[in-house]
Amino acid sequence: MDGGISNPAGTAERLAQMLAALPDLARDALVDPVPPRNLNDWSALPPETPAALFCPRSAEQVAAILAAANAARVPVVPQGGLTGLCGGARPIAGGIALSLEKMTGIEEIDEASATMTVLAGTPLELIQRAAAERGLFFSLDLGARGSCAIGGNAGTNAGGNRVIRYGMMRDLVLGAEVVLPDGTIVNALSKLIKNNTGYDVRQLFIGSEGTLGVITRLVLKLHPAPGCTHAAICGLSDYDKVVDLLRGARRKLGPTLSAFEAMWPDYWEVACAVPGVRDPLEARHAHTVLIEAQGTDEAIDGPRFMAFLEAMFEEGIIEDAAISQSLSDVQAFWGVRDACAEFKTTLGPHHAYDVGLPTGQMDGFARACRAAVAEAVPGGRSVYYGHIGDGNLHLLAWVPGAAPQPGEALDEAVYATVRAFGGSVSAEHGIGTTKKKYLEFSRSPEELDLMRRVKRALDPNGILNPGKVIDA
Amino acid sequence: MDGGISNPAGTAERLAQMLAALPDLARDALVDPVPPRNLNDWSALPPETPAALFCPRSAEQVAAILAAANAARVPVVPQGGLTGLCGGARPIAGGIALSLEKMTGIEEIDEASATMTVLAGTPLELIQRAAAERGLFFSLDLGARGSCAIGGNAGTNAGGNRVIRYGMMRDLVLGAEVVLPDGTIVNALSKLIKNNTGYDVRQLFIGSEGTLGVITRLVLKLHPAPGCTHAAICGLSDYDKVVDLLRGARRKLGPTLSAFEAMWPDYWEVACAVPGVRDPLEARHAHTVLIEAQGTDEAIDGPRFMAFLEAMFEEGIIEDAAISQSLSDVQAFWGVRDACAEFKTTLGPHHAYDVGLPTGQMDGFARACRAAVAEAVPGGRSVYYGHIGDGNLHLLAWVPGAAPQPGEALDEAVYATVRAFGGSVSAEHGIGTTKKKYLEFSRSPEELDLMRRVKRALDPNGILNPGKVIDA
């Protein structure tokens, strides 16, 4: 990376040089003053004011801004819906923020190919609705759906609740238009599922957290709208039975299985204490699992779901279950799983983690991590839940009543346990700046070196989101 | 690329220098003389004898060989099962061939995570069988299953018959061990479905046709074995109805839909003329489609399949259908689709193409391409079939009785039509050398430049498979 970029001295001159070189085409993208929302993402880091904010309306404007920034060596932080949790979209002092918020809209829905072409700033929920209006389904779903932008979803390879069936953004993006740091607009807007013509450049940018290029347009893969949805909350006596239930669900529900969310009892307790959340089960169990299946036909898939649950009872795998009778039951069951969004109010400040682990090792990890957190900080608590069919465990750790929270000690305890289990420090939220020092816990030195080579090849001046994910 | 590599002068000296520098560790990987099988892949190009053949038994040997070749600037052509169709694994004069044929074996099956770890030279069929023995399913399937190696399947991002349900190799590889041209062994052997820790380096190598690194190990994603399989051959009156049938199948069969193979009447005619192939329908139709669904339970999914076909009849979408009553019927139906493997005998020499197109445009393309082939060469014929649900059309073109076939004129006619339709010159077979001059028909200049940047970053001396896919 150009040493000067991380050196604040001279940044004002660089910015002046950049603004002077900006073509007319891009001048009206400058937004002054910078609104408070553009000073941070959803991470717990303090806000940061960029030297300037640009809100371009076209890929051509993005290209002109990047070319000028590159020539003047001004750092650029791309911004989408600013709902990331790891500081990836937080501005850099002396650098510019480049928000895609004015590049919104659905350009085409191709029903025969089951694809949708969208501008990168389009909110996820708008895309979900537009697909539904045509009897189609865009499968990505996450809590921030109303605010997050599809370009940010791609940049962070977002996952969410239904990865077990439909995959992550990496699986849902067929084509992309990306602007490179030097201002080159790369048109790779393919609608094709199969396209073996050289390197898959689109995959380079998905999950790169805005460090390699700025995504401006996407071609998304759609699915048919599900014809019916069934869910159950199951109580189980130990983790081996949770794994048996997952195996049974994969076998008997087949590809209709659309979610498999395990909740450890410590999570279940704090979730059911959230006002408005109803516990669908009468007794407490060692483990609780939310299973969802999306079928095509109530008359066929309703009985299949019941037969599956009956078989799991008969085999002694589940102890108890509440079964949805309606879509509002399905929503109520998700209410327990989604209660974590309210924990800021009910638990107070806490740290959230999203780790990746082989499914079979999750309970062993939860035990070890719970002990590590309790040992690392007096009064340290932690609760566990997650998309275990995808190998993704979420956990929250905190010290009740402590202000500030001992964040670094909690991070150390959690990530040291992840490393000991050979897991991933981020299954879905990404690295940004908050997990950067732990990246080496999950990636080999050779992988890190390879990432640096890619970064240097695509962004030789290190202007794009410098200091995020990895240093070149 | 180092200019010297494509210059045959000095290659003997370079090879001598490489052999002299080879550590003891790698010396016994040298195989002399070179067996005839290693002189070519399944492309129609003439065989080529490499300066030496190495058959290493470990990633460490691969690393030592690559490091020595890199230092001496000797070109290296990686080889798997040598079943590629585009010359990607064909040796280069003066270069060495590096065959993974002795690196075979299944190292682990993790049932809870539904993953399998294998060495890159392992034949696909062995992997399919090992999964089946555990009640699991490895979904990749293609005609060369008995000979092709899984490392080559990854290197070419193989697709095959069931992409519509399970995806291509890009979707089936969770982790990889790759040796870079400089001999660095990159361990990225993750079993995790969700792993957002920096760039997805594994995706760089999948589909790169051995030009960026040598894949030595893979972690593969497994699925539960299907509980039942149903198939039908449907006759339809026009292409709009084929698209309607695909839409209906997606909606009513949901994710159980595992294949949707359309065959144009010209294909149907030559397929049914292959000895041993039985036409399951009584009358000829404008279009014929093979539909397959893999379910979990005969009692549920059998009636679902029948109800789907009845609805398609009632809606006037299909004119006629033969429905499988047994697995042997399913195989017989696939017999018509797989008859193309015998066309070398029944049609004589012909050129095979695998193009990518949006589903809605396939019939328009077929008409235009048929006319272009007939116009380009006197007596030129072409037949059309393919995985249309994946946007992948296959076609064969030839001049009956001509020897040699006017290959270049046929290529020009086909690829010019692909370009006019904005399609892909290769949906699954890859580029190798045979399609290299047409790569720019499907990729923008900016995409090609980006590919070159990646190539130069990972293989600065241009020793890995030089002259294949793209020139750096």
TrEMBL record, chains A, B:
Which InterPro entries does this entry report, sorted A to Z?
A: FAD-bd_oxidored_4_C (IPR004113), FAD-bd_PCMH (IPR016166), FAD-bd_PCMH-like_sf (IPR036318), FAD-bd_PCMH_sub1 (IPR016167), FAD-bd_PCMH_sub2 (IPR016169), FAD-linked_Oxase-like_C (IPR016164), FAD-oxidored/transferase_4 (IPR051264), Oxid_FAD_bind_N (IPR006094)
Q: Which GO terms describe its biological process?
A: respiratory electron transport chain
Question: Which keywords label this protein?
Answer: FAD, Flavoprotein, Oxidoreductase
What the entry lists under SUPFAM superfamilies is as follows: FAD-binding/transporter-associated domain-like, FAD-linked oxidases, C-terminal domain
The domain of life is Bacteria
- Molecular-function GO terms, alphabetical: FAD binding; oxidoreductase activity
Q: Does the keyword Oxidoreductase apply?
A: yes
Q: Which Gene3D superfamilies match?
A: 3.30.465.10, 3.30.70.2190, 3.30.70.2740, Uridine Diphospho-n-acetylenolpyruvylglucosamine Reductase, domain 2 (3.30.43.10), Vanillyl-alcohol Oxidase, Chain A, domain 4 (1.10.45.10)
Limits of the FAD-binding PCMH-type domain: 46-225
Q: Name the Pfam families on file.
A: FAD-oxidase_C, FAD_binding_4
Is Flavoprotein given among the entry's keywords?
yes
Cofactors that this protein relies on? FAD
Its family remark reads:
Belongs to the FAD-binding oxidoreductase/transferase type 4 family.
Give the protein name, as stated in the record.
Answer: FAD/FMN-containing dehydrogenase
Native organism is Salipiger marinus
